[in-house]
Amino acid sequence: MLFAGCDWSDQWLDVAVVDRSGTVLGETRIVYAESPDPVARYQDFLAPLGRRWRATVTGIEDVNLLFARSLAASGMEVVHVDPTRAARHRLARGIAKTDRADARLIASMTLAGEYRPLVVNSPEAEALRVVAHAHRAAVAHRAEALHSLRAALMRIWPAAVSAWPASVGGLRSPQARAVLTAAPSPRAAAQLDRRSLAALLTAAGRKRTVQDEAERLRMVFSRPVMLLDPRVERAEALRIGHLLAALDHAVRRADDLQRDLAQLYTAHPFHPLVAGIPGVGAILGAYLLAEIGDRPVERFGSGRSLAAYAGVAPVTWASGQTVRVAFRRASSTHLRSTLHAVAFSMVSHSPGAHAYYTMRRAGGDAHATALRKLGRKIVLCLFRCMASGLTYEDAIAFGYDPAASDSPSRPRRVPLDEGQIAQARDMLATPGTTVTATARTLGVSTQTIYRHVLGRHWGR
User: Fold this and answer.
1) How many CB atoms lie within 10 A of CB 426?
2) Which of 238, 255, 311, 345 could cross-link with 336 by S-S, CB 3.0 to 4.6 Å?
3) H/E element holding 15?
4) Can you give the C-alpha Rg of the chain in angstroms?
5) Region label for 389, one of left (φ > 0), alpha (ψ between -120 and 50) or beta (otherwise)
6) What is the DSSP letter of 164?
7) Strands 12-18 vs 3-8: parallel, antiparallel or unpaired
8) DSSP characters for 276-309?
9) End-to-end alpha-carbon separation of the chain, Å?
10) Residue 375 contacts residue 382 (beta carbons within 8 Å)
């Protein structure tokens, strides 16, 4: 049986092959520019070295490399060698840092069994992982484009930043982007009349209270503002136009990827399990399954290993009588951030999660610490459900009897009590009183009046 070590770079692959005794049988360098198919070139190199060359165990530090993924897809065994452990071995043995020496070191570590087996997810799970990472990047790019636009507007037109409240999407809303594209400077916006603004809002998808919103924007744009030289303002408007185009592209890209992500999420075998967790929607559920995969038992072995991979299991350092518990930083940052968001959402939707979070906070834990401990409990329960095929039950996950009188319940904060609701109805019964004035008097949002007083959802 042969054991190979592969040290990769952007231009070539250095390969070293050893037998069971550790004797180096061959070394080669596969240059990408000279080898259209590095996998075929690698197999041609292995063929003369042994009769059972197809059973060669190939160790590599980056299993997400195209060469490693393609080699695993061809049926050959690929294992993951930890780069940090390889660097410690190199330092301990006093080996100089070269590509050829690294390939030999990885081959010797593969022979010694210092590696982790590569567990390949199904094509459906791998496709979900690729699209989930692309969606994360698109959301980050959208936020960056939005911040750049806001900073540019603050330079010449601060009133435009607060013209659209966050309740309707702020500057990211289609209405704001449509109006700013037509009038990217204060002088241009001041020339828009009510009819032009109403046409822009209608084209952006607004259906209700179009004339009222157009009048509100006209009043905002007609107020006196600080102005620059017209030539400088035109240059700034040109800059804002390009930033708006970048934001439009980022929004469309994130929306398209979100639709693709939802389709792949529903096709995942564990979709029914994750969809049954309270507080976990399509995006968070897709992020969870993208990082865990569809073979968690073969990949992690236990729930504790998955918790360590997710960064929600602490690291304990002990020396003599000194014991120190530290935050685990060597983990999957994607899964760790996803679990933080899942735990935060479940506190508001799951009775058991809310009771557990409240207990941890009462015990002296900080907000982030309580969420991290809740995330560990969630991921352990999720692993057990995946391994056993059971459905998620909130009472079983957090150990309470839902039929008991003292069982935890998710508290719902009522924005208006019965007296305030009666007061709001009396105010609305008075001729000339608007919903907006009633909401301002009671200190709540207009949507709260529509939903809790009038009994219907409020839409724009």
Assistant:
1) 11
2) 311
3) strand 12-18
4) 30
5) left
6) S
7) antiparallel
8) TSTT--HHHHHHHHHHH-S-HHHHHSSHHHHHHH
9) 69
10) no
Q: In whole angstroms, what is the distance from residue 235 CA to residue 249 CA?
A: 22
Cross-strand bridge partners of residue 28: 15
pLDDT of 134-183, one tens digit each?
999 999 999 999 999 999 999 999 999 999 988 778 999 999 999 999 99
Buried/exposed code over 162-173 (b: 16+ C-beta within 10 A; e: otherwise):
ebbeeeeeebbb
Tens-place pLDDT, residues 301-348: 999 999 999 999 888 888 888 888 888 888 899 999 999 999 999 998
Read off φ and ψ for residue 16, nearest 5 degrees.
-130, 135
Tokens representing 103 are 């390939």
Phi and psi, residue 151, nearest 5°: -65, -40
| Cα 236-242-247 angle, rounded to 5 deg | 120
Q: In degrees, to the nearest 5, what angle opens at C-alpha 280 toward C-alphas 275 and 282?
A: 65
Torsion sign (Cα): 435, 440, 441, 445: positive
Tokens of 334: 């994607």
Single-letter code of the amino acid located at 282: A
Task: Outline where 112-229 has alpha helix (H).
Answer: 123-156, 158-161, 174-182, 186-190, 194-203, 210-221
In whole angstroms, what is the distance from residue 133 CA to residue 149 CA?
25
Distance separating alpha carbons of residues 444 and 346, to the nearest angstrom:
25
Closest C-alpha to 69, from 38, 30, 97, 93: 38
Query: Do the Cβ atoms of 258 and 236 come closer than 8 Å?
Result: no
Do strands 24-31 and 77-80 pair parallel, antiparallel, or not at all (unpaired)?
unpaired
Partner residues linked to 246 by β-bridges = none
Half-sphere exposure of 206 (CA within 13 A, CB side): 24
3-class SS of residue 416? coil
Under 8 Å between Cβ of 284 and 354: no
What is the rounded distance in angstroms from the CA atom of residue 60 to the CA atom of residue 46? 16
* Interstrand relation of 77-80 and 57-60 (parallel, antiparallel or unpaired): parallel
Amino acid at 33: A
DSSP 122: P
